[in-house]
Amino acid sequence: xxxxxxxxxxxxxxxxxxxxxxxxxxxxxxxxxxxxxxxxxxxxxxxxxxxxxxxxxxxxxxxxxxxxxxxxxxxxxxxxxxxxxxxxxxxxxxxxxxxxxxxxxxxxxxxxxxxxxxxxxxxxxxxxxxxxxxxxxxxxxxxxxxxxxxxxxxxxxxxxxxxxxxxxxxxxxxxxxxxxxxxx
Length: 184
Hints:
Blueprint: H1 6-29, E1 70-74, E2 79-83, E3 89-94, E4 105-108, E5 111-117, E6 123-133, E7 136-143, E8 159-162, H2 164-173, E9 179-183
């Protein structure tokens, strides 16, 4: 066999395919949870583009935001809906997002903390985490002083702040494993 014969080319092709397969396997084993299709359970009917809004009722639950018991978070509207069984909105409220946004999609609550210090140094309570961006946790919370300031865009922060009353409601509603749907 020479280095330019058909057997040599076939051998190189087989080796290349084996290498690509191995690298694909390694990459799939290292997918962050928030991007893993097995972690995401996008239900039929969920639209991750800008969902149509009811112009007469801006706080109305956007159509195309999923089904079942869930938290819906609109990136464009800076609003959260706590949706119970029967697609009934239990509570909706405005929020002040951090400097980092999660990608639109379906997530699960992964961890909770009763009281901690936020990435911006603010004492916060009722933290409900569901995603991570650039190694920064993304989650809902309430500042102990009740403030919901706009974030300093120079600091990576993932806190989506609501009032203390809204934080209490989120804490009671969204336990570990609870579905969070992020829409535009």
